[in-house]
Design brief:
heterodimer, A: six-stranded mixed β-sheet, four-stranded antiparallel β-sheet, 10 strands, globular, B: mainly alpha, two-stranded antiparallel sheet, 12 helices, about 75% helix, binds adenosine-5'-triphosphate, binds magnesium ion
């Protein structure tokens, strides 16, 4: 079995008025795509923000490649290889597409050649590279934030509901893209409430309810669409 | 011919005055959303540094450069000790910087008395026909333009600029990409302070160097900033100084300085009524996207 890239144990966090995340635990192994399935408001985004270091944790630990990173801030985690694709996209709206990509490479070794790789993967972004990112369509912005994370050659990619607010055919593209990325060896943690994307992209997974991880989903479970849909209706 | 030159000169000096008064304020407000009421006092410190050095034999150009760095350091200290505690709390930050401004002006009065030795205007004057002008003001016009060009270069062509723009637009996302946003804020405040100090030193030969000298620059600086808006700081600075001087200059020539300033104020009010987000948002929408 591959080594553990990310391990979360008993993670607790919130926004001042009570804990949203209440002792969540999970593991991600190198080269794997791990999904976390949960309905609206169970704390998926809070989990991702806490893993990234944007929301402080009050208990529990986050371990990256064997090192405890719980006390590090987001800047330091990013430099260590956490690639973050937030829910709601968060492009830098007044910056050009190209500058959005450049900032993704800047603190991760300034490997500007990777911009060219991204343009090859996403020709739409090349066409629009001088355009302000805020003027792109929802699907294009989603590509941009994924490319912005990839351009820094992340050790683990954190994807927060990439299906939200994009058209169904683009959801399919996102699934195919995650698979493709995974073939090149990228490790992914994906949170979603879209069963189709979850099945298309994730190999194994977890179920999240009310701030806790309540079940692990095996490869066989992931093929059982009925079961996954049932999880969401709980 | 002489008349045309004279009007152009008046326009240029008005615009340079506004640009130099506002440039430090623009950087801090546009990038950090902090209304720095101590801006005038930072200019005053710049003038004080320049005057002290000048009268101990340092060439004026070197005094100006040292003023930039000295006041930038003052900015670093202010940011580390005070300002950084108030990010995202605009009103509190405003009150804090107002307190700082009072302390700095009173402190200068107590420490150095009611005024400092003035600096003679460098370069002398020139004439074309009946039109006479000060070479120093020509230099200030050129320098003001160079400063804007320098800022453009810094923000659009360097790694610092990329980090600063990202931090301004989506701070958390910038952090999640590894940008040390606390450092960006500190350097931005230092830059804005340093530019205020530089402008104070450059203005020093044209005015009386005294503890409350900053006040004459603060009102025009704020009018410039509000007219420009913060959608695009550099376009805003150029657009609003150009626009305001255009409104001010004819009235200054026909009716004197006071009416010129009233005209500038009215022009600013009308513009803000029509374009609430400032001139820069309009420039950006019209030409830059
Ligand atoms: N910044 C915040 N301040 C206070 N409460 C918040 C904040 N962000 C989220 N919450 C609350 O935390 C809970 C979990 O939110 P979170 O965004 O983590 O859920 P989610 O599973 O990502 O939901 P969704 O599927 O809608 O994205 C919600 O009740 C929400 O109201
Ligand atoms: Mg969410």
């Amino acid at each position: 079995m591959n080594e553990t890239v990310l391990s979360i144990a008993g993670l607790t966090a919130g926004y001042g008025s009570g804990d949203i995340l209440q002792g969540a635990s999970l593991e991600v192994r190198r080269g794997d795509v791990v999904g976390v399935l949960g309905r609206n408001g169970v704390g998926k985004t809070t989990l991702m923000r806490t893993v990234m270091g944007l929301t402080p944790s009050s208990a529990g630990s986050i371990t990256h490649n064997g090192a405890d990173v719980t006390g590090l801030d987001a800047e330091e985690r990013a430099v260590r290889g956490f690639g973050y694709v937030p829910q709601g996209r968060m492009v830098f709206p007044h910056m050009s597409v190209e500058d959005n990509l450049r900032i993704g490479a800047l603190e991760r070794g300034r490997n500007w050649r990777r911009l060219e790789d991204m343009y090859q993967r996403f020709p739409r972004l090349r066409e629009r590279r001088r355009q302000r990112a805020g003027t792109l369509s929802g699907g294009e912005q989603e590509m941009l934030v994924i490319a912005r994370a990839l351009v820094g050659d992340p050790d683990i990619l954190l994807l927060d509901e990439p299906s939200e607010g994009v058209q169904p055919n683009i959801v399919k593209d996102i699934g195919a893209l995650i698979n493709e990325l995974n073939q090149t060896g990228i490790t992914v943690l994906l949170v979603e409430q879209n069963v189709e994307l979850m099945q298309a992209a994730a190999r194994v997974g977890y179920v999240m309810e009310k701030g806790r991880i309540t079940q692990a989903l095996s490869e066989a479970d992931m093929h059982d669409g009925e079961r996954l849909r049932h999880v969401l209706s709980l | 011919m002489d008349g045309v030159l004279s009007v152009l000169y008046q326009f240029g000096t008005n615009a340079a005055f506004l640009l130099l008064s506002a440039i430090g304020l623009i950087v801090i407000l546009g990038m950090m959303n902090i209304i720095n009421l101590a801006h005038g006092e930072l200019m005053m410190i710049g003038a004080y540094v320049a005057s002290s050095l000048y009268h101990s034999g340092v060439p004026f150009a070197a005094c100006v450069v040292v003023s930039f760095f000295a006041v930038a350091l003052v900015g670093v200290a202010l940011e580390r000790v005070l300002i950084r505690r108030f990010y995202g709390r605009e009103l509190q930050a405003l009150v804090v910087t107002w307190g700082v401004s009072l302390i700095l002006a009173q402190g200068a009065l107590l420490a150095f008395g009611p005024f400092l030795a003035s600096i003679p205007i460098p370069f002398g004057s020139g004439t074309v026909g009946t039109f006479s002008f000060s070479w120093y003001w020509i230099a200030l016009i050129v320098l003001a333009l160079l400063l804007v060009a320098g800022l453009w270069f810094l923000y659009y062509r360097t790694a610092f600029g990329l980090r600063a723009r990202a931090t301004m637009q989506e701070r958390e996302m910038a952090q999640a990409l590894g940008v040390k946003t606390g450092r960006v804020y500190m350097l931005t405040f230092a830059l804005g302070s340093g530019l205020a100090g530089l402008a104070g030193a450059l203005m020093a030969p044209t005015t009386t160097i005294a503890p409350y000298m900053g006040q004459q620059y603060v009102a025009p600086a704020f009018i410039t900033v509000v007219t420009g808006g913060s959608a695009n700081v550099i376009a805003g600075a150029l657009g609003s100084t150009g626009f305001l001087s255009l409104a001010e200059t004819p009235f200054t020539i026909w009716f004197g300085t006071f009416i010129g300033i009233v005209a500038m104020l009215l022009a600013s009010l009308v513009l803000i009524r029509l374009l609430p987000k400032g001139l820069s948002e309009w420039i950006q929408r019209r030409w830059l996207s």
